[in-house]
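debug: dumping io for the single-chain case to check the tokenizer round-trip. Nothing else runs in this session.
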Amino acid sequence: MSFMSDQGFPLPPPTFEFLIFSLRTQAEMSLRLISFGQEEGEKEPPDFNAARHAIDLMSMLAEKTKGNLTLEEQRLLENSLTELRFRFVQVNDSASKSAANES
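debug: decoded output
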């Protein structure tokens, strides 16, 4: 089955992998690890609540799907969670240091 957006471009198939990539991208955007069309100096501060929410959603998925995933799906989910949790702490520490230096 092929999915098309209202604007006429193809949408990816609704897979578990796409769901994980979508949640991961949401967390990365909230942490300002990726952005679209903004200059470096124009970056907004990280939205830690939104990032934590996306990470918590992935964690809930990991718990609810335990034993029902393929090895590849399980690795994708676990690796994404590990990396996002690490990056969350990293960005949080960096933001705290920046705030302390500005005071």
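debug: round-trip ok. The beta strands are 3-4, 10-11.
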